[in-house]
């Protein structure tokens, strides 16, 4: 079995290539996805090999990208739309929330919109405003959409293919600051044997506290767990992977063992995913908890200027600080 | 004309009676394509702004068929309004006054063509050969549309203003990508919207997309002069059909109360699209005789004399005058159409009243094609909760 070391970005590119090869109805569309290969080069080389009817450079209007993709889906295509940056998805918000999400429901199952909306998200790259946001809660709050995010190259490779093969409309969030991180990817494993798209996974086993994270924060939490281990504290890190639906089965099992739980995300804390997760953990694990579920998140400010983003974003120390507090309760 | 058959036969064509009037006789608006005057006088042909000559060549049977369509869609629409007033529908968006624009364009569609309606295209739906009961579940509140667009070649109603123009554009791009343009039997797509929608970003984005991708698409704007209370002047400083020029495709204004002209310009635009000549915009100049919806009160924002002036341009009256003076139809025919309309509306009413309320638990159905464990759990909890009332007095 061919295992290669790829960056997360290259793993996505390879997964997209596979999807284009496997299904002639798959089309990629977005701004600069063709000749340029996308501003992050995630679609690099695909238009050259599959043509401009499969990899479509669109006019510069996000609602138009998603709205026309709805029509293509009704026609029988499987559109994979790229939104160039998180902060630019809002012009498409109406089409995503009012049209993409509801079409199957309104039609009583007669219309399927097998669309993937790829969005590079999150901060940490020193970008100007509107380029570092974490909009996942907006989409996870919307019935009819599924929301997933990958944290490593292997998941990037398999999850993008699973998302494209799924008939559900899926918002696929890509942790842009992890695009260049490398990891092993099994290229030939059949998709049917890949880890299920909507399941969480234990990224590091531990016994003393449970840390829940997704996307770009998984790396941060794994680093925190390494540091904690040096202090003799074993953190269990769970990569949630699917934000809608949430799979908290492993989290419940873990928290019942550890009695302590910290949820970590870049998005602002107020009404973020962490709030929902904390509520559910409390409902399910009430008698096992030694302390309240704590959240480590971005602050309830607009995403700040990049020179202070390191202080805005949860980091290893803030994660460990929260873990300490669960022990001090 | 057979219901659902938009084709024009070549048998027994009736030459248009010669008229001294020409299109340029439309003193108020020389750009308006008109083939039947408000008085019911036939105009042989009309020239569009790009020099296209529009004419129709119908048999007597087809003329009578168009009249029948107009009367039927108006009667069914009136029945739906009455059903709302009686509390049987939650809302109704009446097409009153816009019958000719809808019947003309609807009959111009060929079988393989795809339509993307707003929520007011009951007349187009009827002309597609679709049972008029289909959208009433939405307005009664027992479903949210619920039909398969591809089965009927008629998309679900779209309530968000202008959103469907992008769907139509994407669908038309797909037609092109499927290689279904460039021949006489190619496919074309029509997107309906109103004058208010032309201010929406989605509609302008659809114009851009359709243009640069050369999509086989007809943008059919029914300019009924009002977006709820706001008059056309609040949406535009230029005639709407002229907007097309800026996007790089042709635009034409047609008398939307003239079923013949509406048919002619739409058929021409659709055929151009299917042949691979790209999109175009039709502005069907008409008037919303009724309220925006049954929740609206137009007396607050428009004067009676304006409505009366448009009453004189009624699409059905002019067709009836034409059929009568040309002896294409007689009193027996008109009576039979009225009787058919009455019977169909009674039948519609009976079926609306018989629509069952959905079971509450069905609200969990079809949220996702592949389902969701979270929803499954909520459904189970809800079912258990509902079952807890079984056997109780409530």
Automatic annotation (TrEMBL), chain A:
Pfam family of the protein (one): Transketolase_C
GO MF term (any one): oxidoreductase activity
Keyword Oxidoreductase among UniProt keywords: yes
Domain Transketolase-like pyrimidine-binding: 6-181
Source species: Micromonospora sicca
Gene3D superfamilies with a match to the protein in the record: 3.40.50.920, 3.40.50.970
Named cofactor requirement(s): thiamine diphosphate
CDD domains: TPP_PYR_E1-PDHc-beta_like (cd07036)
Top-rank taxon: Bacteria
Record EC number: 1.2.4.-
Keyword terms of this UniProt record: Oxidoreductase, Thiamine pyrophosphate
Protein name: Alpha-ketoacid dehydrogenase subunit beta
InterPro entries: THDP-binding, Transketo_C/PFOR_II, Transketolase-like_Pyr-bd, Transketolase_C
TrEMBL record, chain B:
Protein name (Swiss-Prot/TrEMBL): Pyruvate dehydrogenase (Acetyl-transferring) E1 component subunit alpha
Domain Dehydrogenase E1 component positions: 70-355
Keyword Cell membrane: no
Pfam families xrefs: E1_dh
Basic residues bias (residue ranges): 11-21
Alphabetical list of Gene3D superfamilies matching this protein: 3.40.50.970
SUPFAM superfamilies, alphabetized: Thiamin diphosphate-binding fold (THDP-binding)
Keywords, comma-separated and alphabetical: Oxidoreductase, Pyruvate, Thiamine pyrophosphate
GO molecular function (one): oxidoreductase activity, acting on the aldehyde or oxo group of donors, disulfide as acceptor
Superkingdom of the organism of origin: Bacteria
Needed cofactors: thiamine diphosphate
Gene: pdhA
GO biological process assignments: branched-chain amino acid catabolic process
Chain intervals for the UniProt region annotation (Disordered): 1-29
PANTHER family, per database record: 2-OXOISOVALERATE DEHYDROGENASE SUBUNIT ALPHA, MITOCHONDRIAL
Organism this protein belongs to: Micromonospora sicca
Annotated InterPro entries: Alpha-ketoacid_DH_E1_comp (IPR050771), DH_E1 (IPR001017), PdhA/BkdA (IPR017596), THDP-binding (IPR029061)
The keyword Oxidoreductase is assigned to this record: yes
């Amino acid at each position: 079995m061919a295992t290669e070391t790829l960056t997360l970005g290259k793993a996505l590119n390879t997964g997209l290539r596979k999807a284009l090869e496997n299904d002639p109805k798959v089309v990629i569309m977005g701004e600069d996805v063709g000749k340029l290969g996308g501003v992050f080069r995630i679609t690099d080389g695909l238009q050259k090999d599959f043509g401009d009817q499969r990899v479509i450079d669109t006019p510069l209007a996000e609602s138009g990208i998603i709205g026309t993709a709805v029509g293509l889906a009704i026609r029988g295509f499987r559109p994979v739309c790229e939104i160039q940056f998180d902060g630019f998805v809002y012009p498409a918000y109406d089409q995503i929330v009012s049209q993409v999400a509801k079409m199957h429901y309104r039609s009583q199952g007669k219309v399927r919109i097998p669309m993937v909306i790829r969005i590079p998200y999150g901060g940490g790259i020193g970008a100007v405003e509107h380029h570092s946001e974490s909009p996942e809660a907006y989409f996870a709050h919307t019935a009819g959409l599924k929301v997933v995010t990958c944290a490593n190259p292997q998941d990037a490779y398999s999850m993008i293919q699973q998302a494209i093969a799924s008939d559900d409309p899926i918002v696929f969030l890509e942790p842009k600051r992890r695009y260049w991180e490398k990891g092993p990817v099994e290229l030939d494993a059949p998709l049917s044997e890949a880890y299920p798209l909507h399941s969480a996974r234990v990224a590091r086993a531990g016994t003393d506290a449970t840390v829940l994270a997704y996307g770009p924060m998984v790396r941060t939490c794994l680093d925190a767990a390494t540091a904690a281990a040096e202090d003799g504290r074993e953190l269990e890190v769970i990569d949630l992977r699917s934000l809608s639906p949430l799979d908290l089965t492993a989290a419940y099992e873990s928290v019942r063992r550890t009695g302590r739980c910290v949820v970590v995300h870049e998005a602002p804390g107020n009404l973020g995913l962490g709030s929902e997760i904390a509520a559910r953990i409390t409902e399910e694990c009430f008698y096992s908890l030694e302390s309240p579920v704590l959240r480590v998140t971005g602050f309830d400010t607009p995403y700040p200027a990049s020179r202070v983003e390191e202080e805005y974003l949860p980091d290893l120390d803030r994660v460990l600080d929260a873990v300490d507090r669960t022990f001090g309760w | 004309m057979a219901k659902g058959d938009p084709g024009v036969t070549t048998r027994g064509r009736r030459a248009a009676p010669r008229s001294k009037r020409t299109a340029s006789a439309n003193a108020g608006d020389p750009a308006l394509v008109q083939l039947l005057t408000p008085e019911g006088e036939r105009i042989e042909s009309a020239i569009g702004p790009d020099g296209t000559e529009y004419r129709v060549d119908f048999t007597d049977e087809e003329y009578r068929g168009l009249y029948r369509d107009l009367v039927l869609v108006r009667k069914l629409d009136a029945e739906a309004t009455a059903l709302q007033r009686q509390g049987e529908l939650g809302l109704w968006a009446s097409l009153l006054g816009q019958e000719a624009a809808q019947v003309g364009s609807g009959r111009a569609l060929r079988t393989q063509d795809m339509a993307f309606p707003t929520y007011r295209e009951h007349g187009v739906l009827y002309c597609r050969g679709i049972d008029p009961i289909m959208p009433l579940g939405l307005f009664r509140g027992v479903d949210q549309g619920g039909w398969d667009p591809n089965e009927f070649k008629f998309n679900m109603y779209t309530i968000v203003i202008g959103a469907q123009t992008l769907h139509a554009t994407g669908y038309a791009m797909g037609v092109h990508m499927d290689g279904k343009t460039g021949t006489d039997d190619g496919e074309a797509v029509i997107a309906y919207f109103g004058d208010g929608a032309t201010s929406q970003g989605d509609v302008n984005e659809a114009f851009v997309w359709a243009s640069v991708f050369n999509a086989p698409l007809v943008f059919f704007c029914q300019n009924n002069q009002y977006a709820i209370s706001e008059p056309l002047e609040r949406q535009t400083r230029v005639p709407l059909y002229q907007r097309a020029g800026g996007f790089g495709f042709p635009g034409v204004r047609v008398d939307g109360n003239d079923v013949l002209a509406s048919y002619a310009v739409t058929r021409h635009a659709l055929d151009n699209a299917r042949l691979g000549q790209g999109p175009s915009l039709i502005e069907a100049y008409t008037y919303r005789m009724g309220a925006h919806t049954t929740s609206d009160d137009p007396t607050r924002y428009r004067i009676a004399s304006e409505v009366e002036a448009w009453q004189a341009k009624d699409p059905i009256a002019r067709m009836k005058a034409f059929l009568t003076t040309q002896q294409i139809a007689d009193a027996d025919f008109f009576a039979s159409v009225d009787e058919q309309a009455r019977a169909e509306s009674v039948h519609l009413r009976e079926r609306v009243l018989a629509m069952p309320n959905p079971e509450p638990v069905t609200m969990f159905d079809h949220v996702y094609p592949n389902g969701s464990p979270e929803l499954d759990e909520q459904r189970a909890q809800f079912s258990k909760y509902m079952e807890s009332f079984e056997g109780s007095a409530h």
